[in-house]
Amino acid sequence: MTAVAEPMTAVHPGGRPSKAMANPGHGDAFTDHMVTAYWTREAGWGPARLGALENLTIHPGMIGLHYAQVVFEGLKAFVQADGSIAAFRPRANAARFARSAARLAMPEVGEAMFLRAVEDVVRADADWLHDNPRHTLYLRPLLYASENNLMLRASNEYTFLMMAFLAGGFFGDAVEPVRVLVSRDFTRAVPGGTGNVKCAANYGPSLLAQRQAHEAGCAQVVWLDAAEHRYVEEMGGMNLFFVRGSGSSATLVTPQLTGTLLPGNTRSSLLTIAGLEGHAVSEERITVDQWRAECAAGTITEVFACGTAAVVTPVGAVRDRDGDFAIGDGAMGPITKKLRTALLDIQHGRRPDPDNWLHPIC
Question: In terms of domains, do 302 and 221 share one?
Answer without folding.
Answer: yes
